[in-house]
Amino acid sequence: MAAPLGQRTVVVGAGPVGSLAALYAASRGDKVELYELRGDLRDPSTTPLNFTKSINLALSERGINAMRHASSPALLDAVFKETIPMYGRMIHGEKQGKLFDEAQLYDVHGRFQRAVDRGGLNKTLLDSLEEMPNVTLHFNHKLIGADFRRNLAWFSDHSSSSSSSSEKEVHFDFMIGADGAHSAVRYHLMKYARMAYSQEYIDTLWCEFQIPPSPTNTFKLPSNYLHIWPGGSFMFIAIPSLDKTFTSTLFLPASLFASLDAAPESLIPFFTKNFPGVVPDLISEPELLKQYKQNPHLPLISIKCSPHHFAASAVILGDAAHAMVPFYGQGMNAGLEDVRVLFDFLDAHPASDYADSPAAAREAALEAYSAQRTTDAAAINDLALRNYKEMSHDVVSPLYRLRKFVEEKLDQWVPALGWATQYSRVSFGNMRYSEVEKATQRQGKIISRVINLAVGGVVGLGLVSLLRRGPLWMARHGWNGAAMKLASVVMLPGALVRVMMGQGTLLFYPFPGRT
Ligand code: FAD
């Protein structure tokens, strides 16, 4: 192991990412102190997160791989026991007055996502931490200040039963900030690191609902799917839970939420029109209205920053470093992957290579980590923003399905080509996110060339036809008529092929390989 024994590592935030980071540090022999703003979520008296974070999440390969490498053999088994496999999306809609659903498998190789209860996963991680003798957990402690040159942090301690709080000064060798999108560690780090920072609130808000089990205590929908009611600029989704409920989320532009808020009587007609089959089959009308009013309508933030560290003192991980919109189901997975990547870098920079200076080794490791991870975090942030269109709109488009079909068949039948859909690379592999983006662009270019060749073929046929019949058209229809014929024979079919193949443009490129 690279890190020296006994290094004092302070982790801020006991969410999934902070808890896993604490496990990694503890397994390397660090003296780990984990500070968490809230109470212990395993304690029934602790106020639950209650809709400040989605309850059910999709756990995929990157998150699983990070836990696989946590040196805690029982961890993955414990996590898997509490998950439900989701093999694909099930799209719901209505055609000619009839409800329909269509399953779209995620992967030709049968790989799947796992629906997991966020709180349950967090509890399992905390249980594993509790077994480590070199870890101390400090709940009800809020980071209120940090000096990253003197390696000091200040926490307000609300753990006593009285309403007052006391302040604690804590010394650390290394601080890991995993305190979420509104990170205090990041805020203080910015005073030391020359950090570029940007945040964006997208125009979509989300509100959670619960679909109860059927009266015979079974799932009301097939349980091994992520269910989607696509609506174009909005959507409704449902993810299964172990108690046979579904956690559903309504994603809607802020202005639409505002109009529904102003006229609550329009909520049921809105659902009936846009999400057929939900009301009253899955949720009763009064229950839908009640949950809509009771549950908050929350914003979605996307954060990018660089670097993620300062010198040898501190690094930020998870949402603290790269909160993203949830449309790729990668926020937590990427955060857990941060932990694995960070410790890979720390392990690859042993103090023995730096004149036995742990700080010098850590600084080099953090530098390398930040350089790699900021690029990858920005890539998945962008992919997540783009995936909203795929989930809410493209999944019902024949063109999307055609491209998915072609890409999957290439993956299945000619594996030597190394062809894979972007989705499977993101969700079922561990390729760097920025590499996934590049691979997708490469494949896109090839598809584009093939399309242009097809267009070229159509145009060629059109031209042959033009040469053969042009004089006849001129004679019959004059210049204008002949030009119209030309358009219909040459331009329109060419453009149509491009649009059909999902190129989404009416521009006409007659020359193969031009785009
Ligand atoms: P958090 O979970 O936010 O944990 C941060 C912790 O730090 C909290 O416990 C907080 O109390 C504590 N803290 C905050 N401030 C302080 C302080 N000053 N001092 C001490 N402690 C502090 N991700 C997926 O991978 N798959 C999905 O399917 C998915 N779906 C989602 C759906 C929705 C609607 C949303 C909103 C998000 C979704 N995500 C998903 C993202 C996922 O929820 C987050 O990426 C993940 O929870 C981030 O974990 P974290 O540990 O970095 O931060």
Automatic annotation (TrEMBL):
Q: Which Pfam families match?
A: FAD_binding_3
Location in or out of the cell: Mitochondrion outer membrane
Which intervals hold domain FAD-binding? 9-380
What's its EC? 1.14.13.9
Which reaction is the catalytic activity of this chain?
L-kynurenine + NADPH + O2 + H(+) = 3-hydroxy-L-kynurenine + NADP(+) + H2O
Q: Which SUPFAM superfamilies match?
A: FAD/NAD(P)-binding domain
Key words, A-Z: FAD, Flavoprotein, Membrane, Mitochondrion, Mitochondrion outer membrane, Monooxygenase, NADP, Oxidoreductase, Pyridine nucleotide biosynthesis, Transmembrane, Transmembrane helix
Cofactor(s) this protein cannot do without: FAD
GO terms in the biological process aspect are:
'de novo' NAD+ biosynthetic process from L-tryptophan; anthranilate metabolic process; kynurenine metabolic process; L-tryptophan catabolic process; quinolinate biosynthetic process
Its name, as the record gives it, is: Kynurenine 3-monooxygenase
Which organism is this protein's natural source?
Answer: Lophium mytilinum
